[in-house]
Amino acid sequence: IERESPLFLQNQLCMDASTAGREARKLRNKELDTKITRRYVLYGDIADRERILLGLRGNKKATKFVAAATTEKDLPEADDDTPEVAFAGRSNVGKSSLINAVTCSGAARSSDVPGKTQSLNFYDVSRRIRIIDMPGYGFAFAAQEKVEAWNRLMDKYLTGRKNLKRVYVVVDARHGLKAPDREMLAFLSRYGNVAYSVVLNKTDLVRPADLARRCFLIREELRLAKRARSTVHMLSTNTGAGVRLFGAELFSLANESSTSTEEDKIEEEYDDKKLSGYADYDDDDSDGEEESGRRNMLGGEWIPGQGSVQSPRYSTGGRGRGRPVGGRRGGRR
Q1: In the predicted model, what is the mean pLDDT of residues 56-81?
Q2: Which value, in Å, is the radius of gyration of the alpha carbons in the chain?
Q3: Long-range contact list for 71-74, CB < 8 A, 24+ apart?
């Protein structure tokens, strides 16, 4: 099969961990493995532009945690021109693992507890782009008042942040779109101001035929949706398949590199006072489902816009673009 052909890429996307491990051993035996392929065997070659951006030509950290916002006043200043890209998704879809994979770093921590991420976490990449890890929507091990606070903060960020350039909705490839995902897509289509895309993660756990079918169905749902991009990204943060292609698009939104000497000096200073009270900025990357069978827990769902969880219905209007109908938003119509 010719490399980069659709069939070759599909086989890579659906390659399970066992087969990927054999590929890794082949690379080691031929002494062709690299630091990246030792962690993500199917990652592939990274373009020079991304290598510079990610700091892969030196030993300095290019990606670092810079802020955690639990209220609107905690949000970093948006008075600069650094573009921001937000990762949204249900709990346990692997958002922080995706951040680590696409940045070739370990800046984002992960957890197997749904709802562990309880703030908007900001990661800076070489001062040229910021990646925002958002709390997972759906079930969370958190008190109801906290979930409501996340709701207000995320609504405000997604609809009013001037630096926000793109939203990626991360979806578990094993299940496709669920009701909370559709609620988020309807919210972004109706109230958002930037383009958004769907990212299917964990493709190594799906058969090729199932993956192709789910990708097709998602494209059909988004075809007439306002501000939705037609591309559905497919990848595995376990094997690295598809991550490089996704990263090429994500980092195309980054500011161009400066020629000044300051740009070459990526500071690694953290504000200890701000971080001292924030021990865990974890995400929820386990394979667990909604823990409906467990008892004695505080929990709740983060529902975008406080609307009811339902499938969006799209109607065309105005220059042929789609507009979701329904998905009432608390206090707004």
Answers
A1: 85
A2: 20
A3: 71/149, 71/153, 72/153, 72/156, 74/119
Which is more confidently placed, 183 or 260? 183
Nearest to 233 by CA among 254, 221, 248: 248
Please list the residues that pair with 301 across neighbouring strands: 139
Q: pLDDT over 90 for what percent of the chain?
A: 49
| Strand boundaries in the chain, DSSP class E | 63-69, 84-89, 109-111, 120-125, 129-133, 138-140, 164-172, 195-201, 228-234, 282-284, 300-302, 313-316, 322-325
pLDDT for residue 261: 40
The closest of 204, 196, 209, 221 to 101, measured between CA atoms, is: 204
Start-end of H helices in 30-142: 35-39, 48-54, 95-103
The residues pairing with 87 across neighbouring beta strands, listed in sequence order, are 133, 168
Predicted local confidence at residue 321, as pLDDT? 40
What secondary structure letter does DSSP report for 1? -
3-state SS assignment for residue 29? helix
* Residue 80 neighbours by CB under 8 Å, 6+ apart: 163
By the 10 Å C-beta count (0-12 exposed, 13-18 middle, 19+ buried), 61 is classed as: middle
Report the mean per-residue pLDDT for the chain. Answer: 78
Distance of CA 173 to the CA centre of its chain: 14
DSSP class of residue 137? B
Give just the sign of the alpha carbon dihedral 26, 27, 30, 31: negative
Residue 27's SS3 state is helix
pLDDT tens digits along 151-189: 788 899 999 999 999 999 999 999 999 999 999 999 999
Q: What pLDDT score was predicted for residue 137? A: 82
Strand 138-140 and strand 322-325: the pairing is: unpaired
This prediction has a pTM of 0.76
